[in-house]
Design brief:
Elements (H helix, E strand, L loop, with lengths): L1 H8 L4 H14 L13 E7 L5 E6 L7 H15 L7 E6 L1
Parallel strand pairs: 2-3
Antiparallel strand pairs: 1-2
Length: 94
């Protein structure tokens, strides 16, 4: 429980998040929006004091499917060791 609490409190800088996640997102982009336009994620930042909230800024945030959100969550857990920590991913319009 103490290890999970320590991981929950960890803060990752915006530059580290973007350097790690944006190449992965570029390699495996989200599916296109129903209007045929490409969904592009511009950058990622971490917010939240009590538990980690990751804000993804994209051109069409409402068209990011649940399966791609799970992919991003699993990628964050893998690269930054958030095992056992509840994560929130929020998508905002840029």
């Amino acid at each position: 429980a103490k290890e999970v609490e320590a991981r929950r409190k960890s803060q990752i800088s915006t530059s580290t998040l973007n350097e790690t996640l944006l190449p992965i997102i570029e390699k495996t982009p989200p599916p296109s929006a129903p209007n045929g336009r490409e969904v592009k994620i511009k950058y990622v930042t971490q917010a939240g004091e009590f538990y980690p909230i990751f804000l993804f800024f994209a051109n069409y945030p409402k068209f990011v499917p649940e399966s791609y959100r799970r992919f991003l969550e699993n990628t964050i857990r893998k690269h930054f060791d958030f095992t056992g920590v509840p994560l929130t991913l929020s998508f905002k319009e840029k």
